[in-house]
Amino acid sequence: MRVAFLTLGCKVNSYETEKMKINFEKKGHSVVAFDEEADAYIINTCTVTNIADRKSRKMLHRAKRLNPEAVVVATGCYVDSARAKGEVDESVDLFISNSDKDNLVEIVLEKLYQINGQTLEQDAQNNCHADIQLNSLVHENMSEAAIKEEHTRAYIKIQDGCNQYCTYCIIPYVRGPLRSKSLEDIRDEVTKLAEAGYKEIVVTGIHLSSYGVNGKKSGEFLEKAGKPLLEALETIDSVEGVERIRLGSLEPRIITDGFASRLSKIKTICPHFHLSLQSGSESVLKRMNRHYSPQEYLDGVKILEKYFENPAVTTDIIVGFPMETEEEFLETVQFAKEVRFAQIHVFKYSRRQGTVADRMDGQITEHEKSLRSDRLLKCEKRLENEYMDRALKKNEKVLFEEITEIGGKKYIIGYNERYIRIAVNADEIKDAQSKCNTITDVEIIGKADDDDIILGKINDNI
Q1: What average pLDDT does the chain have?
Q2: What phi, psi does 400 have (nearest 5°)?
Q3: CA 297 → CA 8, 144, 257, distances in Å?
């Protein structure tokens, strides 16, 4: 069979898609590009916003147009959300929920074999290794090998599920309860990745700070969070060959003096911390059911600055949350300036059916959301440039990823520990391709025309 994949949404989805690809290949099937003709198209969907829903539906319809005879499969968070709302789509042949992703291969093959007048049992007799019963669908056991998603870094999902129930978010309803990967499985997966040559490990999860925490109450999270995650990071750090560990999104409340102190002793940790804020207004945070105040968030940032030099603190902010006034929005802008974020991902509030916020009064118009988004993005660009000016040293260590073209010239591009993108003219390097997947000393010389990219040169005397 020829199977094509498309991934929408978060890094956790990317990780899970790569697992699916490997599982199909293990059974002797071919993975092809999404725009090629295939027997099955699998779209790993996202539902975090209305735009994500629309894109998920659009790509499912596109798959059916690519080959009307193919099996079109929707999996991921949009599936669970659409089921809850009773949505149907004639372009989709199979809806497979997050909880069934580990058995997706068998479910899809069963459908394909039915179309071809064959069964899984017949397939097994033909040595196609169909060894999992369809009726044994269980939650992901999280013991699969970690998967590389980009050119040089590998992602490992160590946690799934969320129990925070922010009023705007549908994810706890579609991702299920908290569950964590064992330290033994983490060590085994990272060892395989290090042996394969990957230098940087990105640690991900739906609510990463809840790694190792099974309590359902906020108080239990505060009591238990931090130590299990630190143990997981120390386990990764102990694997020979790992040169960088980069953290996924963290809950602001996890940043305590004790947590940051112990974290700073892990030498491979990148000083790049994504602490999800959502709003800099205390009243908006309360309506969102976020369990911290702006001051508590700021205290966490100051703790990070105590233990790490120029840490890159990045965040997510939602504008236009129900009843958000102009004054509350300005509180958020001012707070962003006070924190001095390295980067902000700005989102316009998106109503999600089934959430508390969807039923709130005072819904903001799309026009006003767009105006606020534009204003915050202008602030974000200034803060990003200020951070680069502040944090960049004369010499930086860059993990090179790929060779690409900028302004008609070829550059080899990578990232430093703080996730600043740095490019070096490939024509000035002998065998530039050999520099990919290496951490190299680079002398900073200025900015490219695209001011998101810093220019440097390799200096063997550094």
Answers
A1: 86
A2: -75, 140
A3: 30, 35, 13
